[in-house]
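HUMAN: Ready with one sample?

ASSISTANT:
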Amino acid sequence: MTTRPWDLPAPEPSPGSLPAVLGLDRAALRALAMEWGEPSFRGDQIFEGLYRHRWDTWASFSILPGTFRTRLQEGRPIGLPEIVESVPSTDGSTKHVFRLADGLRVEGVHMPYRDRSTLCLSSQVGCAMGCTFCATGSMGIGRNLDAGEIVGQVLAMLRRHGGSPASPVNLVFMGMGEPLHNLDHVLRAFRILSDPRGLAISPRRITVSTSGLVPGIRALGSHHPRPRLAVSLNATTDAQRSRTMPVNRVWNLEALGECLGAFPLQRGERITLEYVLLRGLSDGLEDGRRLAAFAKRFPSKVNLIPFNATESDPRMADFQPPEESRIGELCRILSDSGLTVSVRRSRGQDVAGACGQLVRKRGFRA
């Protein structure tokens, strides 16, 4: 049997000789404090300093005894990823490149709105899923990000762009990687990000997007609390979906629909179906009717995403965005079926920061 890239765990991060503190939850930080002869509440103070106050150097932790602070400075780095490149878009969003401790790089996007900000996060270096319309898929898989590297993207972008800790922040795991291929680390990061004594981001404001990794969807549904679920659907027939998304050759539309129908939803919760519109391939009127039928099998809302081209990727040469008139026709089909539908005008297209455009063109370290 052929081994598929997502059948095997992605390579794990290799901690250095001084493991970072970022990514440890309150229980782990209390244990660390006690291990070093301090009362457990010192761990809570570290947690609040890292995530509520967003301190990024041990010198800022004046609430800690000087001797303990010195030991931390000498023995445990905080581990905040370094922003090594920031590319602003004309629409106000900014694509950031983060250098990790081992030199590998990932990308994330800060998108400001009038009443909130949205941060697009990466969960892996590269991606194993191989979707042909997504630039990240051309990289292959490098390794998983650990919880600290995920949380660090949030802290680094919030520090760079300012804003009150109390202002609403939405987090979307729609950057590099398949989040459900790295579920353990993603959930550890989720627990830290949503902890009321830290960043206190509501679980309702955190969304993970999957290409349709059915075992991962089932595993996510067993956790409470958990992030919201979005599914990248992108085709309404198995023939077309298998052409652009290799995962469909293993878990086809029927298997995916059954899994989503059984996904445990809270009151008022809906699954988001993300649907990339490819001219002549997935934007037909029959596609719209089939999409409506699929979406009505469970509580859902549909997010139409006009294709974002990446000129440097030859795999995408045959893909084009749809005509504007066709987008309107599909919206009418879906809304007439009683569905909530929106069109995502992806932010950051001019800096290759939009959906499907995040890629390190010269390798994982470039």
Notes: The chain has two domains: 26-75, 80-351.
